[in-house]
Specification:
The chain has 213 residues and is an alpha+beta fold. It contains two helices and nine strands, in the order αββββββββαβ. The strands form three sheets. It has a five-stranded antiparallel sheet. It has a two-stranded antiparallel ribbon with strand order 1-2. It is rod-shaped. The N and C termini lie far apart (102 Å).
């Protein structure tokens, strides 16, 4: 029997001209680049201010009213109040903002540009449905000039007025009324002040679904 010799197979060193090697290197590079982009995008957040609690129109935007949060907004960053610096002095809200809501730049104005002013109206306590940012109707029952101690049928002085603040609801035994401050325009404000000055009975009626809290 004759010996059959099998020629030895030599392993060739990979060459850059090998298309399989080139494709493998490209796949690795693409995966590295994509991973870096995803990581960068995930960490690309900016600080903006959010409402620390429910804020009504006319609320001063200071450090006690807002808190900084980091969010990923992309091109929309400029639409919200930046938290890279303290809020500017003299800024107030032109509309109510809910707790945790980002503060839009478009919702900011100065106090002298507000068309409405707060006026205090006494209400019985407790007043759990009256919260800043909520909406209420104001009703007035004027004194009857023809009969002492009686009042005329109620008339609505303001509809859908916004609650600015509520005070005096601490639940103390000495306090039986609270004061709700409501934002009114000049005409409504005059009517309410006139009713108060003439001893009319005022009633604050929450609007169902009017928000607040």
């Amino acid at each position: 029997m004759s010996d059959v010799r099998v020629p030895a197979v030599r392993l060739r060193r990979p060459s850059w001209r090998d298309p399989r090697l080139v494709v493998g290197v490209l796949l690795v590079l693409v995966s590295v680049v994509v991973g870096a982009r995803v990581t960068q995008a995930a960490g690309d957040t900016v600080p903006v201010y959010a409402a620390a609690r429910s804020l009504a129109s006319g609320q001063v935007v200071d450090a006690s009213a807002v808190r900084p949060v980091r969010v990923h907004l992309g091109p929309g960053t400029a639409a919200y109040l930046s938290a890279r610096r303290p809020p500017g002095k003299g800024l107030v809200l032109a509309r109510p903002i809910g707790a945790g809501e980002l503060v839009p730049v478009a919702a900011l104005t100065s106090a002298d540009r507000l068309a409405r002013r707060p006026v205090g109206v006494p209400v019985p306590v407790p007043a759990p449905l009256l919260q800043p940012g909520g909406l209420v109707d104001l009703w007035s029952s004027a004194r009857d000039p023809a009969s002492t101690g009686t009042f005329l049928p109620p008339e609505r002085l303001a509809a859908g007025a916004e609650v600015f603040a509520v005070a005096g609801t601490g639940g103390t035994f000495a306090s039986t009324t609270a004061t709700v401050q409501v934002l009114l325009d000049d005409g409504e404000l005059k009517a309410v002040l006139d009713a108060e000055a003439n001893g009319a009975r005022l009633a604050v009626v929450p609007v169902p679904g009017g928000g607040g809290g």
